[in-house]
Amino acid sequence: MYDSRIEWMPEAKRWLIYDNPTPYQKELNDMTFELYSIKDRLAEEYGPIFQAKNKAIAERNFNNLVEEKKLDEDEFNLVKVGSFDNETGTLTTV
Q: Which residues is 77 bridged to in the sheet?
């Protein structure tokens, strides 16, 4: 599967996204990915968009980020912003 890892960089006040393709990436020719962003409630802005196979993967990445960076989970929201079909190139927003 294809998965992204997200990381908050406090010095830069930005989210960084690391894409980690696995050996199965080539098998994903006709797949729709969900697109997510993390909203900072205090700053009232969204971070960069990242893709995940499904909501469970996005939530796992978000929870790992919150735990790893010792962030206050009440200050951030995981938000689905759309989907992307990598076969047709169709981008759908919510």
A: 39
